[in-house]
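Sample entry (823 residues):
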Amino acid sequence: MKKQILKVMVSAGVLLAVMGGAARAQTASQPLQIDLSGAQPTYKGDHLKSGGTNAAGHSYTVNQSYISVDGKPVIKITGEFHYYRYPHQYWEEELLKMKAGGIDTVATYAHWIVHEEEEGKWDWSGDRDLRAFIELCQKLDVKVLLRVGPYGHGEVRSGGFPDWLLAKPLTVRANDPVYLNYVGILYKNIADQVKGLWFKDGGPIVGLQIENEYQHSASPWALNYPGQPLDYTVAPEDKGVTHHQVSSSATVNTRAAVGVEHMRSLKKLAEDAGMDAPLWTATGWGNATIVPNETLPVQAAYAYPSWDAKARPSSLYLYTDLQKNPDYAPLSYNATEYPYLAAELGPGMINHYARRPYIPLESADALVNRFLGSGSNGIGYYMFQSGTTPHGKRSFLSDEPVGYPKMSYDFGGPLGEFGDVRPTFNRLKVQHFFMKDFGDRLAPSPVALPANAASIDRLDTKTLRYAARGANGSGFLFINNFQDHVTNVAKDARFEVKTPNGTVALPLKGEMHIPAGENLILPVNLDLSGVNLVSATVQPMAHLSNKGGEHYVFFGHEGIASQFVFPGNTVVKASSSNGCTVRAVESLKLVECKSADVARFEVETGGKKTNVLLLDHASAMNAWVLGENNDRHLFISEATPLYENGQIAFRSVGKNVAQVRVYPAPAKGPELVGVGAVKSLVAKRGFATYQLTQKAYEPAVDVKWPAYNKVTVALPKKDLPPGVVDVWMDLPYEADTAQAFVGNDLVADHFYAGEAWRIGTKRFLGKSDYMLFNFRPLLPDMPFYVDLPNPPQVKAGEQIIRVGKVTMTPEYETTIRFPDSTN
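Predicted structure, serialized as tokens:
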């Protein structure tokens, strides 16, 4: 590789020029410009009837741009997790995984049919124990957004309406007195279950959603006949404005005023039942109806909808000012009056029988980047934790008529149906850490768009997408080089950011190499506890404050030289032994870090000191921020940590030896809790390193073919060895669909989409000696082949069922605690 040459020119006192680091794919002949010189706006909030204070003095306030908690602007990070779709004995470990991944709020449906499948016979036990779930959230300090319906969708039978509702003389989703009476009974039963768990009582329920996609979407009633047109769960008068799923609404809603009155009726019923939360929400997309100034509209974004008949590029990766140009417009309200809160971002997608979308790994965090850069001040995922829809007493409770699986509710999200941690989890969590530690700066910041933003077409793969958020010359530059349903290409670019004190250039000569499909967030004039970081070509991730001082964590991207620029009067202590060097360039201090792992240095201005830690991209994907607010540490490990009360259980799939690095290094090494072994390794660059070991375990693999279309796989014995918490079965196959039985029960089903089926077996151990799989064959020209990157080649007259090598992989757990601090 040629030696890179760096040139710097100073303009009006503040200017940065940095070189990109790799071969150029496309050169930007002119710098890309953005303006952050504007003043910080003021926002109104008196018009919104939102917020509240509890007895402990904690508060939620809302203005037209953002939510504040205890007076501090925040970006709430919400993950959907349906308690009844997951075994209750494993709720805690999944919530701890979500919390380790940066989720601070769980959204969950209380679907009517799940709890009152038979009229008057309520079931709040076992996996349906809503109160136990919310109490667990309170124990783990996870907030809750409760979605109480009565209609919920969620790919549940009849959208959550019980079958017996069809036998009543009423019209659903309307101000029919008989219907509202039944809704009042539902709300009273839900409220009784969660009594004392509201925010006002010191509980975790901070949000309530009434209805779902009202006057936008509906589900088919499940009591229908094969070949009959579907009859949707909607008032007859609203059929003309109702869709099957999330989409834009071209139809004018002439019944909007009627819709508002119905939503008001539902809200009053909820309040009369005793429901109360500082944040009342309602679906806001595609003409869906809200209660003006009383319910906060929440938004969605599904770039790979399996309900869409065509796979086509979306506009969801193009930067815009979402308050002025919201997705799925037109809306039923003025979006500029409310904060833009994304509640249903789709990091994955459930497979429909006829459509099984292939979703690139980079799409999930690119979507979040676009939403943050476009002004969203809330990020929520549907689904974050997948699950399994239970079988009811009378029928399957899934939305079968439209072709979804009978039981498996795997949305392809960060956590799978059986709790497996997927690569999107790691890519999203570094953004969550950023939102948590820098959200108070980002949330009040207005959107700045380049002059060409509105003219970029979704099919345009040549023009780099970018935006910024900030004011008074300080903020963040957002860059996105991903577009769904197209082939993305690498691009070279340089930027000029206008500030009140001059132009910050990234870089002035040469370009940064932006890899295909990647996205970045770069700082401009970022305050590091009193030290000004003029700019950097690396992404901020976390701010740690503990006994070791102030620490700011960044991570780099492959192909982009990692550089920081500070004002010339900044004292920088950097050394090649720690991976960084410093030199004066004109009136600036330029810090260059070259490390395949981690690098660090210290900066000081006017007596204010702070530490800077840089991770490479691979290390950032394995990074975790654990501990309490005033004493947090950075952990790097391929194992997933479950942190609670100072104890950290590290879980590792397939590796009985796990390495854990901790920064800043604690005064004392960890103590082992339970079985296993822990030892200290060589410390380096401020990290302490430990090795965690469990005794290796090799599960037996016993596969039989009792019939041409059936396979049995032996399950491990009920009592797994100490230090082993699960055994993962990977079943590679080629067939149309697969169904898994344990004993006589269907426990999961799977639509083939080109990848192996991964099943966590622990929930089935002791229930049978084996799991039986029933396959339906692949046939020529099946409709979902269009979605697969490498569709199977099935000749005319062929029927294919193939099963590859089945593997059984143990998941190990080693628990440690630190005697002094990291908690």
